[in-house]
Design brief:
The complex is a heterodimer.
Chain A (H helix, E strand, L loop, with lengths): L25 H45 L5 E8 L2 E3 L13 E6 L5 E11 L4 E8 L6 E8 L13 H4 L10 E3 L8 E3 L5 H30 L1
Parallel strand pairs in A: 7-8
Antiparallel strand pairs in A: 1-2, 1-3, 3-4, 4-5, 5-6
Chain B lengths: L8 H7 L12 H6 L4 H25 L8 H23 L1 H7 L10 H9 L6 H31 L1 E2 L2 E2 L14 H29 L1
Antiparallel strand pairs in B: 1-2
Helix pairs in contact in B: 1-7, 3-4, 3-6, 3-7, 4-5, 4-6, 7-8
The chains are: A alpha+beta, B mainly alpha.
Amino acid sequence: MHGAPGAAAPAPTTPAATAPHTGTPSWRLLTVLGAGGALAGGLIVTAYLATVQRITAHKAALVVGAVREVLKAPARWDTLYLVGGKLTKQAPTGPGAQSVERVFLGYDAADKTLGAAITAGEPGFADVVSLIFGLDPGTGALLGVKVLGHKETPGLGDKIERPTFLQQFVGALTPLKGVKTKGADKSEVQTITGATITSRTVIRIVNNATARWQPLLQAYRQEGSR
Amino acid sequence: MSEAPATFDDVLRGLWKENPVLVQMLGLCPTLAVTNSVVNGLVMSLATAFVLIASNVFVAALKRFIPNQVRITSYVLIIATFVTIADMTLEALVPTVHKQLGAFVGLIIVNCIILGRAEAFASKVTVVRALLDGIGMSVGFAIALLLMSGVREMLGNGSFLGFNLLGPQFEPWVIMVLPPGGFLTLGLIMLAMGWHAERKKRLAKAAA
C-alpha cells in the first residue's frame, strides 16, 4: 500500500494516468473514497428533500382514500392509537411512534359513530394479504372491505379484488363463515372457485382482526361515555 | 483506445449487434422479473437508462482521479447514488408502478450491464464516447424489455400497455405473466435469434 516516495506524486495530466497505479499512496485512496462518499451523500440528501413531501403526501392520501371507502364516506374520523393495551386519541410521541398500531373511528354528520376502519394482514396463498375493513363495534357488522395489497396468483387469487366478492362483506355479521353456496345466514360469505385459499384468508383476516379489536373498541367507547 | 474518436457506432453497437440482454446475456434478472407488463418494462428501462448513462458519464469524467485499487468501490458508489435518486424519483412520480417493481428498482445497483459498461468501456474512453455507449446500451436494454413485456402482456393479459386488444372472449394465458412465462419468452426469443444467425451464416456460405 505504501508506495516509494518518488512514485507518490500524482500526475493526472500525463497519459501515464491510464498505466497501472502501482504506487498510489493510501491517503489518496482514502481521499478519493471520502470525497466521493460525501458527494454521493449530498446528492442523495438533495434528492430525498426534493421528493419526501410528495411521497408522504401520496401515502397519506392512500390511507384517507381507503378509510373513506370502507367507512362509507364518514363526515370525520379520529385516529386511535393502541398504547399499553388500550386505545387512546392521544398520539404517542418519541421513538417508535410511527409504528404504533392504529384504527380510525369514523362519525357521520350528526356525530354518531359509524364504525372503525381496521387494517390487518395475514399470509395467503403466496404472501401476506393486507386489508382495511370497516366494522361497527357495537353490532359486529361490517361496513366494507378493501384489499390493500397481495401477491396472489394473477387470474386466480387476485379475484378477491373483484367487487362481486367484496360486496358480500357489506352488512355481513362477524364472525364470518366461508361457504360454497350462500344461504340466508348474514354471516356467510361465498368463496371464489379457484381462489378458495385466498378467499378463506380474507375471511380469516377479518375474523381474527375483529376478535382482537372489537373488545378494545368497546372498552374505548365505554370509557368515553362514562 | 481512449484517443479513438467518437463514432455513431458507439450508439449502434448496443442496439442489436452487442445488445446487452439478447447478445451479452447481462441484466437477465430484471429482464425476467419485471416484464410481466409493458408499463413495468418501460419504467424499468427508463430508470436503468438514467443510471447507466449517468454512471457511464461520471466514470469516464472521473477516471483520472480514481485510483486503480478503489475503482470498483468508486463505480459502485456512483451507481448506487444514481439508483437511490431514481428510486426516490419514481416513488414520488409513479407510486403505483414503483410499488409493482418492488425491490427491483434498488436491484438496478447490481445490474451487470451498468457495472460491466463502467469497468469494460467507460473507464477507458472519453466522456462523449461513454455517453454514446450509455445511450446505445440503454436503448438495447429497452428493446429487449419491451420485446419481452409486449409478448407477455399480450398473451398473459390480452392487452398492450393496459389497452385491451384481444377482446373479452380471449382467455388469458396466465402462465405468461407468472415467472415461468419469463423463461419461456426469453427462451423463444433466443431461439428465434439463433435461428436467424444460423440462416444468415448459411446464406453467406451459399453465396460465396
